[in-house]
Amino acid sequence: MFYPRRGLPAPGSATAGAPCRPLRGDVKHMTVKFLFDNYLLILALLVSGGLIVWPALRNRAGGPKLGTLAATQMMNKRDVQIVDVRSAAEFGSGSLRDARNLPLEEVAARAGELRKDKPVIVVCEAGRRASLAAVKLRSAGIGEVYILDGGLSAWRAAGLPVAKAA
Question: Which CATH superfamily is domain 62-157 in?
């Protein structure tokens, strides 16, 4: 005669129709066994989840990003300050019209040159240095700091004008 595993009623017993549930100790044992048997699977799940979430968290650290269209609209509608954080040599090859060059290394020291009551659009070649500079400008007390998403590369790709430094 076949009898089910421990924790299940035997056929014909008084509790045969009752719902089956394992003993409390068995649940803990099964959970630990599952975790132990599948630790590589669990580790892979955690790592892949982290890789998915990390770029989103990193991008949010710099602050709001503006695409080329939104940046152009803001420049046309509001009095904005444009800060190019590339090196002087890169800035000399061309930048946005009316941009001011504040190399990334000097942003914290020269943030006082910017007006705190005007929005700032931070530009670099691809957007990475601009995110770092935006954090520094916010910590210097400038409230509205935006990053040109994709940087000057995206600006050029959109066919928008680039001014040469005088």
Answer: Rhodanese-like domain (3.40.250.10)
